[in-house]
Amino acid sequence: MAQAAIIAKRSPRTVREWAARHDIGRRIAGGDWMVSRVALLMLLEGDAAALALYLSGERQSADVDRYFSRLRCNNFAEISAKTAIPVDLEKLT
Known about the structure:
The protein is mainly α and 93 residues long. It is built from six helices and two strands.
């Protein structure tokens, strides 16, 4: 959650609320929250269409794929909190 808060330039509490409200994250076994970097980027950019596709399980759409490409990953496992590294979103745009 701390990394997601840094990326979003918001408090961990705000990102935790976004995760619950917008389904961009989940709690693992009642423990820490994990936030999808792809979904967070879509939310930060206000791309509701891409986020809806992503949340429905769509991974082949060009609208979704461009976020994976920008984050230099090709599947969800590569962006899990266990393997994530900080990303400067300003450099990706």
